[in-house]
Structures are given as structure tokens and as C-alpha cells.
Write a structure and sequence with these properties.
With 166 residues, this protein is mainly beta. The protein has one domain (2-165): Beta Barrel (Porin), CATH 2.40.160.40. It has no helices and 12 strands. The protein has strands spanning 2-8, 14-23, 28-37, 43-53, 60-68, 73-85, 92-103, 108-125, 128-137, 142-148, 152-156, 160-165. The chain has a 12-stranded antiparallel β-barrel with strand order 1-2-3-4-5-6-7-8-9-10-11-12. Strand 1 (2-8) and strand 2 (14-23) form a beta hairpin. The termini are close together. One of its GO terms (molecular function) is porin activity. It is a multi-pass membrane protein. One of its GO terms (cellular component) is etioplast membrane.
Length: 166
């Protein structure tokens, strides 16, 4: 189970976040996310069931459903990712991610996507690797700057978010 503490500039409240991915077989998985607001004590989360395809044209394609515990809503989801290595070692790459989420109850869909330049630095310190990301989300018209180490992640969009693995 992956756990982390999360704080962002918009909500200004600390969350304890946990997620677990259960592999059902080589292409099916169930992912559960949960969070606890340390200020109010409110809980929330999502449960996702997905099937992963690995066609030759793209790096991965996930199709499935998601249940949001907060809004008590079920939605269908599809997402794709393509990684284009820029260097032979693969340490510098261009990642393109896109997806679409459809809520049948509201009869409403929401597209999402991002184009990112990723740079991986192995052995940044004796025990830590670092990944630097710069990207753009055309649907939200937001640039992204992120620095992720083994235990600490800092993301900056229009607001900032700090995540610390526990």
C-alpha cells in the first residue's frame, strides 16, 4: 500500500492519502484510493476496475469503470499513454497522455490530456532517484512543473501541491 501526506495551496488542508492496486491477472486490475482530511475528519475515495491493453501503436490503453465514493457516482473511463524516448537510454522522453471520462447518470463526458517532457536522474543522492517533468494540459490550459523523488513530490500548476510519501 502506498501512503502519502498531501497539501495544496487551494484547499490549505492536510490529507492522509492511501492507494493500493490489486492485480487480478496480467491485464485486469482493481485500484482503490482513500483519503482522510486531517482537519475535518472527512473521508473519501475512489474504486477503479480496469483492463490494460498494450497495442503496438501506443504504450498502454486502459478501459474500465470508476466509482466515486464522495459523489456516489459511477463513470466509464478510457485513457491512453504514448512514451517517445528522446535519448537512447530513455532517461529523457516525451509522454503524451489522453483520456475521456463519461458519467452515464449525468450524460456528461470530460476529456483530459497532457504532453510532458520527462527527465530521469538515477542516483541523484545515494538512496534517491529524481524525475523532473514539464508539461502542458490543453484541456485546462495549464502548464505543469513537477519534481518527484522517492519520497517527496512538488507540483506547480495554477496552484501548488506538495506530496510526501510515508
Amino acid at each position: 500500500m502506498e501512503t502519502s501526506l498531501r497539501y495544496n495551496s487551494e484547499e490549505k488542508q492536510l490529507y492522509l492519502h492511501a492507494k493500493e492496486c490489486f492485480l487480478i491477472d496480467s491485464s485486469f486490475y482493481l485500484k482503490a484510493h482513500g483519503r482522510l482530511n486531517t482537519h475535518t475528519g472527512l473521508t473519501g475515495g475512489t474504486i477503479q476496475f480496469r483492463r490494460r491493453f498494450t497495442p503496438k501503436v501506443i504504450t498502454s490503453l486502459d478501459v474500465g469503470g470508476k466509482y466515486d465514493i464522495d459523489g456516489k457516482e459511477f463513470s466509464y473511463d478510457i485513457q491512453a499513454k504514448k512514451t517517445l524516448p528522446i535519448t537512447e537510454t530513455g532517461l529523457l522522453s516525451l509522454d503524451i497522455r489522453a483520456g475521456y471520462n463519461f458519467n452515464p447518470g449525468l450524460k456528461f463526458g470530460k476529456p483530459r490530456g497532457v504532453v510532458e517532457l520527462n527527465y530521469k536522474i538515477f542516483n541523484f543522492t545515494e538512496e534517491q532517484d529524481v524525475r523532473l517533468r514539464v508539461g502542458y494540459n490543453p484541456f485546462q490550459r495549464v502548464t505543469l512543473l513537477a519534481n518527484k523523488g522517492e519520497q517527496l513530490e512538488f507540483q506547480c500548476r495554477l496552484q501548488w501541491e506538495l506530496e510526501c510519501d510515508v
